[in-house]
Amino acid sequence: xxxxxxxxxxxxxxxxxxxxxxxxxxxxxxxxPAAPHPRRDIIIAIDPGHGGEDPGAxxxxxxREKDVVMEISRRLQRLVxxxxxxxxxxxxxxxxxxxxxxxxxxxREQKADFFVSIHADAFNSPRPxxxxxxxxxxxxxxxxxxxxxxxxxxxxxxxxxxxxNLSLNDKDEVLRGVLLDLTMTATLNDSLAIGGQVLDQLxxxxxxxxxxxxxxxxxxxxxxxxxxxLIETGFISNxxxxxxxxxxxxxxxLAESIFxxxxxxxxxxxxxxxxxxxxxxxxxxxxxxEYRIQPGDTLSQIAARxxxxxxxxxxxxxxxxxxxxxxxxxxxxxx
Length: 335
What we know:
335 residues; Aminopeptidase; 2 domains; two-stranded antiparallel ribbon; disordered N terminus
């Protein structure tokens, strides 16, 4: 759940917590920023919400949001790292708090192509349930552009995402504003497109609280050059949904749905210089066209790993049910 202080820039603990002694930026990132490579991985920054002294929402059974979203995030991390052409970066990998602006700063330092913040919703009534997907609102985007232009330390930043090499420090004020506005608009459009894919996949495993991508001024979504989503995986304040959010199987399904949605987008729209872009240009399937089933595999896991819907995978292999066997070779259709 996102508190009001996290929605409005510069209010309350959202900024002040960055100076907390419990914030350890070095421990938040285990790897160094990716060096430029002609066939680089697509970098997914995964942000488990809250952490440390901030437990987030607490369910009627005592389940803490920060614990649930960390489990879902780690499952998502494994799916991303297991997929060819993708690499995950965890914004936090332990139980500590990181300030909201620092979270997006870490994603930019890691040259992330996409930022996803994982949360669990809450309400003062136990009745609401379902998953929601949020992108930045246009009002939030506009105010963030103005803040970037006003901050001298940001005028020397590069824009354009992981492959960006356009500096703002040698541009006049009008041109800086135009460039940032164009960048923010493209980023918001990408966020909404990815959000639609993720929402579609989430709707296959969980009830949707909203049937479309919502938009709000969440602080963690205000990166001008990284497509970003905030995902409320369910209502932890609903007793039934709280139990599901604690369930390892349901956590896995949520993680698979999130990855399937974002993988589908990036396989259709790979960033320049990425491995997936090279495979597309050379007409090579990132999935290798075939997959040999390993012990412990399920159809939903295989589908999520390759970014294709389960139904499409079944249809391509003429499967009537979910039963598969170790050693069986599945044909992976293009998503």
